Amino acid sequence: MVTKTILGICGSPRKQATEHVLTEALNMMEEKGYETELFTVRGKDISPCRNCDYCLRKKECLLKDDMYQLYPLFKDVQGIIMATPIYNGGISAQIKAVMDRTRAAAAVDLDFLKHKVGIAISVGGDRAGGQELAIQQIMTFYILNGVIPVSGGPFGSNLGANFWSQDTLEGVKEDEEGFRSLKKTIKRFDEFLEKYQNE
Ligand SMILES: Cc1cc2nc3c(=O)[nH]c(=O)nc-3n(C[C@H](O)[C@H](O)[C@H](O)COP(=O)(O)O)c2cc1C
């Protein structure tokens, strides 16, 4: 059996709650036999998309920054985990820049993410600070790029994994409900990968 690979993309500029939770998620996937790869925006230079449409003409992005480290990683992965901190009730500007800059990958191959399976993780400082909206923003990105969006299901993980960090690393580690939502999401992620990614 070919080992499947999961790509985790962290949208926090800090090594704190979001990166911790995403690392835990990738560890859970490794325990299930997957290979994993973590890409973080932390310390990276990733500019917002300029809508110059250079990519549509030239099949590459004009902005030669650290997004070029991410483009090749999409190629050989079966599953994606996008994790974002909550900024002003939604996703971080950093993860939004990553999403928008994938326009260049789509310019090369419109189906660059098609049929992959995706889950979302959101981490807010407040208990209800916009986690569900952020997950919906990630799910929207998945849907419009042909990624199969997966949650942990009803009774604990309706849209995916969402965490309350109380603005600290220690806070997120104490969030038992958050980890329950993550475990449920990982369980279904594995099921969907098994069912839809067997080629
Ligand atoms: C600009 C900014 C806006 C924020 N807005 C929210 C918010 O609307 N809701 C919320 O729950 N937390 C908000 N937070 C708090 C972060 O989501 C929280 O500290 C989170 O743990 C950050 O992730 P990190 O620990 O991975 O850096 C905000 C933080 C920043 C820097």
Ends distance: 10 Å
Total individual domains: 1
CATH superfamily heading: Flavodoxin domain
Major pleated sheet: 6 strands, parallel
Under the CATH scheme, the architecture is 3-Layer(aba) Sandwich
> What's the average pLDDT?
97
Instruction: Please identify the structural class as seen in this structure.
Output: alpha/beta
User: Into which percentage range does the β-strand content fall?
Assistant: 15-25%
Q: Assign the CATH class.
A: Alpha Beta
Number of strands: 6
| Rg calc | 16 Å
Q: What name is given to the CATH topology?
A: Rossmann fold
Small molecules bound in the structure, each named once: flavin mononucleotide
Low-confidence stretches: none
The shape, in one word, is globular
User: Could you estimate the helical fraction of the residues in percent?
Assistant: 25-40%
Question: What order do the SSEs take from the amino end to the carboxyl end, as H and E?
Answer: EHEHHEHHEHEEHH
Number of helices: 8
